[in-house]
Amino acid sequence: MEKAAGSPSVGGSYPQKNAEILSSQYGINLFLAGLLLTFAWAVHAVGISKSHLLSYLITLMLIQLLWMLWYLCRSCTQRRLIRDKDTHAGARWLKCGITLFAVITLILDSFKIGYYIDFSNCLSPTEGIFPVTHAVHTILQVYFLWCHAKDIIQSFKTLERFGVIHSVFTNLLLWTNGVLTESKHQLNEHKERLITLGFGNITIVLDDHAPQCNCTTTTLCSIFSQGIYYLYPFNIEYHILASTMLYVLWKNIGRKVEHHQQHKTPFKFHGITVGMIFGLIVLTSTIAIVVVYLIQIGRSKSKSELALTMFYLHAISVLALMCTAGIVALLIYRLEDRSLDNSKNPARKLDAELLVGTAAGSWLLSWGSILAIICAQAHPKYTWYNLPYSVLVIIEKYIQNLFIIESIHREQEKVNDDVKTLRIVTISRGSTLSLSPSYKEIYNGRAACDSGEVPCLFKGSICGRENGGGGGAKEETSQENSSVMHSASFYSSNSVTNNKRRVLKNIAAFLFLCNLSLWIPPAFGCRPEYDNGLEEVVFGFEPWIIVVNLAMPFSIFYRMHSAASLFEVNCKT
């Protein structure tokens, strides 16, 4: 009988849980079908062409467009209703970041349209339809995320689960398509570079997907074809950011939230000058290193070896500084006694899982390089720099993940209420005057004396109005001295806390710029895992290239996601 009595509550949640499971399985099958189609095109499978892959992606985007239009129209008709919002999801800086990547993605789409026009005689119509559809999809999706990323959907929940998960996996497939296209281009360049490093025993077979006809305007075709591959990194980041924001929206469907005030934490440059200066030095030097690397690599054996050595030395220095900064931040956390916020938060949980999950890509490459150095029979001089570089990559990500995950789980420090309402008591002609200067005034030492009646509460002295007090005055004076000591103690402890906070903010700002710096080299073709050639000799060319092509996208995403998380940490600290 007790079980029967409890069954309605269980049954009430079962349909929604069932809908969540069904929608997730639908999304996974959608993704796997597209993944196999992408793989079939990549390996030139018989009967599978690029037009088949693009047709599939166009269909998915059109379905998502219809769902987003339906959702937007329904939201307009219900705009007067009060909706629950997830204050942690869809932060403004995240929306600004995805908007920037979307704008560059639109430029990429315009380049693809121009490329199609120049080669229209021998390209499938789907290659012209795809960038147009993708541009419309990008514009509407960014608008949708700006307006509804924080929504907690409570109506049409089953239908919305399928619509949102369809959008998540559509973006993941578009991300996969971008990663594959960009990787094939990098691989062709890499095969040509290996000759200059003396690895002539590796078979060079270019994977050519170029059109089989002449371009109508040679100069424009060259601009479009080269520009497309330089813009792909931004397109890749756009789709992975969109998929993560949509995933949080999916997890929030039907969620019950506690209504509490969310304190806004705006980003401020004040107090992070040191971290910004060192970070900008790293960013500037990294850009210079990448430019020199791309110019020198592949020119000759000596220039290629010099470029690799220069890259490794710079990366080792940056990673060592990042490890040191992360260790200092963790030591400061160990000295503090602050509780962690373990409340249910899909956005925060996803951030932590993505940090650890995508770091595995770099760890895989690093362990592969370490094994290759240990097992290789011949060791060119520049390959020895790869050993400390690979070890530091593993350690740095380990430390940085600990710092970020603890930072986003730490509760914000709250000022005690009795400190905010610290009362200063003085005697004036036998009567008690109670005055309450603000916390800010007490902290800065600016509690003013009004016409000589209000005491100045600093430096262990009280300036008050004189009167003949007697014994009662002594008691009041004793209470005043007690409050002076209390405020002085608070001032001292708060000063130490502020110093710690300032150090943490500078560390977060420094690591933020360092992660942006380390995102640039692999995103724009500076990939020593491809170019040093040692791993290909030990593991074999094809196996190692497969490992790099699978792991590198996660490594690139890790840096951008870490930068975004550190920006949030800086705002929160």
TrEMBL record:
InterPro entries: Otopetrin. GO terms for molecular function: proton channel activity. It comes from the Eukaryota. GO terms for cellular component: plasma membrane. The chain crosses the membrane at residues 26-47, 53-72, 93-117, 129-146, 229-250, 271-295, 311-333, 354-379, 507-525, 537-558. It holds the Pfam family Otopetrin. Keywords: Cell membrane, Hydrogen ion transport, Ion channel, Ion transport, Membrane, Transmembrane, Transmembrane helix, Transport. It is found in: Cell membrane. One of its GO terms (biological process) is inner ear morphogenesis. It is a multi-pass membrane protein. Belongs to the otopetrin family. This is OTOP1 protein. It comes from Oceanodroma tethys. The lineage of its organism: Eukaryota, Metazoa, Chordata, Craniata, Vertebrata. The gene is Otop1.
